[in-house]
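Hi Y.,

Following your request, here is the sequence exactly as I used it, all 254 residues.
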Amino acid sequence: MPKEQPATVDPLPLTGERTVPGIVRENYWFRRHEAAYLDLAHHCADAVVLEAGCGEGYGADLLARGGAKQVIGLDYDQLTAAHVARAYPAIGTVRGNLAALPVRDGAVDVVANLQVIEHLWDQEGFLAECHRVLRPGGVLIVTTPNRITFSPGRDTPLNPFHTRELAGDELGGLLRDAGFAVEFLGGLGHGPRLKELDERFGGSFIDAQLAVAVSGAEWPEELLAAVASVGAADFEISDVDVDASLDLVAVARA
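Below is the corresponding structure, written out as tokens. Let me know if you'd prefer a different format.
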């Protein structure tokens, strides 16, 4: 688990653009993201890692403590980059634009891009930049909401902070077009315990949370307790039935 932040570091505001640790009603989304970091961290062992779009910084910190040689956290937002530098001093924090990564050619072993590519207008250009900064044989790890299940039946994303969501075949195509060899393309979904919570809350644990969040009503005690109980181990990553997954997970090699 990510370490507790120093008492002097204020948490980032919860805007809906990113998830942050330590907020009970946000715990499901935080653990869902954490599960992917934990599953993919072994790719970063003894590596120089660039997290392109590090957000709050908990993921970069997890990768650093998981055995990476060095982790550079890059984010465009000034407030966010300053927060990461204060809260996670082991992370080398850089403010910069993902459209033109401020890293020399072939300088890093791994680029991590978790729950970010859906926010970008020029996804093809970003992936070309990832290929440029990776050493030959370097690894790109990507997670992103699965368009088919995240914004079902829509041409535009439900989340106002997303510009373009992808299905599994679309993500794979973008990676290959950028010159990557796709070694794994799968998806993250609910494990047995979360499937039980789906049944308990009318067929969808996610929809039950979103209904309360959208309405602005007080969280029912039972729902809030269930959200607080979620852990990273409650999610599973598999390459079976990728179209039905909640988030896409890809590992590609330059």
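The chain has one domain: 24-253.

Thanks again,
Q.
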